[in-house]
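Researcher: Structure for this, please.
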Amino acid sequence: MDLKYLQTFQTVVQEGGFSKAALRLNYTQSTITFQMGQLERELGVPLFDKIGRRMVLSQAGEQLVPYAAEVLAAVDKMQELSADLSNCRGDLHVGTAETLLCYKLTPILGEFHRRAPQARLFLQSLNCYRIRDQLLKGSLDLGLFYENVGGFGSQLSRVKLGEYDMVLLAAPETAAEFADFITPDRQLPLPLVVGEPDCIFRQTIEDYLRQKSLLLGHNIELWSIPTIKKLVASGVGVSFLPRFAVAAELAAGQLVELPVATELAAQRVRAVCAQHKKKWQSPLMKLFQELCQEYLLEDNLIDGEAAVGADDLAGDETGRV
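Model: Predicted structure, token format:
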């Protein structure tokens, strides 16, 4: 049996359909259909039933799911048995929040490649909620994101990496005209430059504005942190981002911090590295996690922030690890 067919089957199950699996694997849909047909012929049972225009798992397909996962996990373990990481040829799938990817991960990625040059790192910049959900589905090995999203339940383990201040930002000329974001019950005719609706930075600032009854002109929704910064620095609106993501612009005077009420000033984002508890921690996963702890915890101390201790992998919903 071709293991590639089992990997494709598992991807179809994880993605919920042939077309989404084809996108993830960079195959054509006809290739997915062919491989599943070959797997059905080898096993002698139909794995999918056609309901209307949808393909759904048959009873035999549902029975195959845990066996396929077990076989593929065993293959992963065999590929990564070498204690010498320089010869390790395994794959590592990591999802990360964009701010951490852009402003914190560069030295970590460089060191990971130096220590495990034969490994293949599949890195995705994703929304924090999606990272959590992909970890729960098992389609990511590790997630580097903010635990403020919650919803971890008992299935995910996480190591705390650090806490980061948030700041309300504007260009100097904007701040000179709109300096008061504390006095409630007012209209401010300028836009809020934010990320997608599920962005936790956006959710935090919008909650604050609602509580204060501060009505801004409109939202400008962008999906790129560097683009958001450039737009705000050009004098278009205000935004709410982690301080580390705008440290250079603050130091250069391109952006300034706006004063806010205590309840918003106290808000912090908490970075974690998480994995599914049932997923075997391969040497590559362990290396990446240890590098995140080493670099991000040290970075917290350099920044003068209170570094959060990383404990053993055994998390619960309270945020303890």
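Researcher: Any notable elements?
Model: The first helix runs from residue 3 to 15. The radius of gyration is 23 Å.
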